[in-house]
Design brief:
With 910 residues, the chain is α+β, with helices and mostly antiparallel strands. It has 16 helices and 48 strands. The chain has five domains: 123 residues, Immunoglobulin-like (Sandwich), CATH 2.60.40; 183 residues, Galactose-binding domain-like (Jelly Rolls, Sandwich); 105 residues, Sandwich (Jelly Rolls), CATH 2.60.120.260; 344 residues, Glycosyltransferase, CATH 1.50.10.10; 119 residues, Maltose phosphorylase, domain 3. It catalyses: Hydrolysis of terminal non-reducing alpha-L-rhamnose residues in alpha-L-rhamnosides. Keywords: Hydrolase.
């Protein structure tokens, strides 16, 4: 009996060991999405993650199978290789409007095959030529002044058992759809914002469970939105058209195999309802007395409604939705109910956010509740909206006598505070809920450290991104602007890619950049372009065309965005080349180093004005370099040669025009030196002395920065690259104006547009341009994640396939940690100082490798898991000139401990 127990125990132990060593598959995605519905990509790409407890897990082969129902459409067979991200489909041509399933299995580096994964799915979209629906517009004369939301409805019968039902919807304007009185989907502000005349998104919904046997009804409301509402300034509206229109198609497949289509056509009816006014900038007016109760239900009597008017608008511009739609996210209750010195009732939600407030209310018919929105209170504690300029940002609700829950539909607000007028009951915080709206991006990055103000800065960076990533990357979300400014997006793009999964978000937006780019290569200031056709070509703004796709490639390892944008990238370089004379670009209007530091008292004449054409030449060279890099990746050898010749000329012209023989730049500003060094504009032998000049400039301002939108993203990176990480820390931790922590000390919960949006005396900067939710200066996050915490990727295998862990200790901090959900799994770099020891904790996801830089003079002083690194053959430890020991590792969790030498940085931390 004992022998049997021993044998059973051995088998049990062996089973547990094998189970622990077993590799599993997770996070199956198609085009970066989980089970997407509505893909118009003809060659979708598949990704998956390997997971397991043992170290060094790698994939050596994979096999994929794809099917439609019971029919196999692709079996890859066993394919050797470690690719587990963006593996392209290579089977039979995919059919439109069809649901596919796929599974994968892999072989690991121990020769073991995993079981087949759980099935994942994707559903293909509807090409323009397969739309049977007609565009429809209201059949009545609209109120041209207020332009209420339009209601469209149609009743239809379902007399068989439904197998599947799929709705395809888009609009000129913003829409909300209902089936049998229930909302379709959980997306808001659909169909999103694109360059509508060239690219109009539609959404696809599985509505199978929403249909009933017998009579059904569909109802869709359409508001002005970006299509025909007010945009930009001077009363500009109807940027894309003056009509409000709907395109709707419902495809029903019954269990007996028959099909039926419900489409928008001349059989629909139209009217208006409770939404009497709706504008993105100005807000919404809802009069519940005019609500047409039950209008989206089958039994509603629409005899008094108008027939619709079909229109022959283009369907060729229709595209499926590429990126994640806008959805509701976090909610906030008021943290304070205030009575201001002016006698106003104000609610403080404690966080500057973007979205709206949901209100519970009951009052008499005709009672009017007015909600106004603001980001800040003035120095006296009064409600402040002057910085919103012409935007009214007001929600007005007229009650019908019934208890109700109120919220807008086709607008959004940037706010922390609301002013409440006319609320018919006692103000109770539980009756007011702020709801955050933003694109449904996966949160991917986390950063924490021992400095509470830096942790708040990280909070502000992420909330600035949330508030400005509503389908397009806007500059600000609250005033009469909210436009897709290209310079802000390019400056922040690498930081954005750490905090959230933005590869689809930016892929969609960059296609609009290319669509709105002028034939001569000029790139507009804002995308979608609602300004004048000639408003563009500003250096650092238009360079979004090259910089952002390259940053996305580095962050995600996805070459498709480079393939898609390559023509656009070359066109922008061609524009600069055409504007140049003797390879110098010294023409055109440029924003320059936007909102750089201007001293309050400039008696010494040191205001940090950087020559705009010096800046232009730097960005010109950088864009040429990115085109060279992209051409190399895409196998365009002839282009590599052509652009390398051009780059040499552009840099030579820079040196001749802007650099003295002794290595001094003609503009002696921080931004001038930062850009020249970051983009390698200087001869190599002159770079270190230029970095010293930069450091001296910073010290001369009392360890303060003077950079604006174009210099700030690269400032600390350049300092660390040339050995001034201690100075980078001093800049980061500076608490007085101008600095990153000054707004934090002033109570900011998002990033400000200006370094001194609110001055030390609590007065405001010029209200005509003073947003308190403007993410550009949040680009410092990239340095915090990749240099301070030390979590980075190499260019040879980007997207964190080859990971670089190289922390930079300093600033008196005792710990810092960055963690990122990569396409392969979780990657983490975290360091902590405990007395005389430095602990470095690292996590490397399966199917990747890492070079881990451990601060220390030699491998003999470092232990991992209690054993000296020098005694473990697997590490291949190598000492570097900058006092790191590098070890190469596969996947797993590691804990390195080393005795750190006494340096000013570590002494301060201890």
């Amino acid at each position: 009996m004992k022998k049997e127990l021993v044998i059973a125990g051995c088998f049990g132990l062996l089973f547990l060991q094998r189970a622990a060593a077993q590799v599993t598959l997770q996070q199956l995605r198609t085009e970066n999405l989980v089970n997407p519905v509505g893909l118009d990509v003809t060659t979708p790409r598949f990704s998956w993650q390997l997971a397991g407890s043992r170290r060094g897990i790698a994939q050596t082969a994979f096999e994929i199978k794809v099917s439609a129902g019971n029919n196999a459409v692709w079996k890859s067979g066993k394919v050797s290789g470690d690719q587990s991200v963006q593996v392209p489909y290579a089977g039979k041509p995919l059919q439109s409007a069809t649901r596919y399933q796929w599974q994968v299995r892999v072989w690991d580096n121990n020769g073991r095959a995993t079981p087949w994964s759980a099935p994942a799915s994707f559903q293909t979209a509807l090409p323009p030529n397969e739309w049977k629906a007609q565009w429809i517009t209201p059949g009545f004369t609209e109120d041209a002044q207020n332009r209420p939301a339009i209601l469209f409805r149609k009743a239809f019968g379902v007399n068989k058992k439904v197998k599947t039902a799929t709705a395809y919807i888009t609009a000129h304007g913003l829409y909300e759809a209902q089936l049998n009185g229930k909302r379709v989907g959980d997306a808001y502000l659909t169909p999103g914002w694109t360059s509508y005349k060239k690219r109009l998104q539609y959404q696809v919904y599985d509505v199978t469970p929403m249909l009933t046997n017998g009579q059904n009804a569909v109802g869709v409301s359409v508001g002005n939105g970006w299509y025909r509402g007010f945009l930009a300034w001077s009363g500009n509206k109807n940027s894309f058209g003056s009509d409000a229109a709907l395109l709707f198609q419902l495809a029903i497949t019954y269990t007996d195999g028959s099909t039926e289509m419900v489409v928008s056509d001349d059989s629909w009816k139209s009217s208006t309802g409770a939404i009497r006014y709706t504008e993105i900038y100005h807000g919404e007016t809802i009069d519940l007395r005019q609500e047409k109760t039950g209008w989206a239900n089958a039994g509603y009597n629409d005899a008094g409604w108008s027939n619709v008017k079909p229109e022959n608008y283009s369907k060729d511009v229709l595209i499926a939705t590429y990126n994640e739609p806008i959805k509701k996210h976090e909610t906030f209750q008021p943290v304070k109910v205030l009575k201001t010195p002016n006698g106003e009732t104000v609610l403080d939600f404690g966080q500057n956010l973007v979205g709206w407030v949901t209100i519970k209310a009951k009052g008499k018919s005709g009672d009017s509740i007015v909600i106004k929105h603001a980001e800040v209170l003035d120095k006296y504690g009064n409600f402040y909206t002057e910085n919103l300029r012409a935007a009214k940002t007001t929600a007005t609700y007229i009650l019908d006598g019934n208890e109700t829950v109120l919220e807008p539909h086709f607008t959004f607000f940037g706010f922390r505070y609301i002013k409440v007028e006319g609320y018919p009951e006692e103000i109770k915080p539980e009756n007011f809920t702020a709801v955050a709206l933003y694109s449904d991006m996966q949160r991917t990055g986390d950063f924490t450290c021992s400095h509470p103000l830096l942790n708040q800065l990280q909070h502000n960076i992420q909330w600035g991104q949330r508030g400005n990533f509503l389908d397009v990357p806007t500059d600000c979300p609250q005033r009469d602007e909210r436009l897709g400014w290209t310079g802000d997006a390019q400056a922040f793009s690498r930081t954005a890619a750490f905090n959230f999964g933005v590869n689809n978000f930016f892929d969609k937006w960059m296609r609009d950049v290319a669509a709105d780019q002028r034939a001569d290569g000029l790139v507009p200031h804002v995308i979608p372009n609602v300004l004048h056709a000639n408003d563009g070509a500003s250096t650092g703004w238009a360079d979004v065309t090259t910089i952002l796709p390259w940053n996305m490639y580095l962050a995600y390892g996805d070459k498709r965005i480079l393939q898609n944008q390559y023509k656009s990238m070359k066109a922008w370089v061609g524009y600069m080349q055409a504007q140049s004379k003797n390879d110098l670009w010294q023409t055109g209007s440029h924003f320059g180093d936007w909102l750089f530091f201007r001293p309050f008292d400039d008696n010494d004449g040191r205001s940090a004005v950087t020559d705009k054409y010096l800046i232009a030449q730097c960005f010109y060279a950088n864009s040429v370099q990115i085109v060279i890099n992209t051409a190399t990746l895409l196998g365009q050898a002839e282009d590599v040669t052509t652009y390398q010749t051009l780059l040499n000329k552009v840099k030579a012209a820079f040196v001749k025009e802007y650099l003295t023989p002794n290595g001094r730049l003609v503009s002696g500003t921080q931004t001038a030196y930062v850009l020249a060094l970051n983009f390698d504009m200087l001869p190599e032998q002159l770079r270190q002395q230029a970095a010293a000049r930069l450091a001296e400039n910073i010290r001369s301002y009392g360890n303060h920065l003077t950079t604006g939108f174009l210099g700030t993203p690269y400032l600390c990176h350049v300092l660390s690259r040339f050995g001034y990480t201690d100075l980078a820390y001093k800049l980061l931790l500076q608490e007085s104006y101008p600095s990153w922590l000054y707004p934090v000390k002033m109570g900011a919960t998002t990033i400000w547009e200006r370094w001194d949006g609110q001055k030390p005396d609590s007065t405001f900067q010029t209200p005509t341009m003073n947003s308190f939710n403007h993410y550009a200066y949040g680009a410092i996050g990239d340095w915090m994640y990749r240099v301070m915490a030390g979590l980075d990727t190499y260019e040879d295998k980007p997207g964190y396939k080859h990971i670089k862990i190289k922390p930079h200790i300093g600033g008196g901090l005792t710990k810092a940690k960055a963690s990122l959900q990569t396409n392969y799994g979780t990657a983490t770099s975290g360091w902590a100082i405990n007395g005389n020891e430095l602990v470095l904790e690292v996590e490397i996801p399966a199917n990747t490798t890492a070079d881990i830089y451990i601060p220390g003079a030699s491998a003999e002083t470092i232990t991992e898991n209690g054993k000296a690194v020098s005694a473990q053959k697997e590490w291949q430890a190598t000492a570097t000139a900058d006092k790191y020991v590098v070890v190469k590792a596969g996947s797993g969790k590691y804990r390195f401990v080393t005795a750190i030498p006494a340096t000013p940085a570590t002494a301060a931390a201890k």
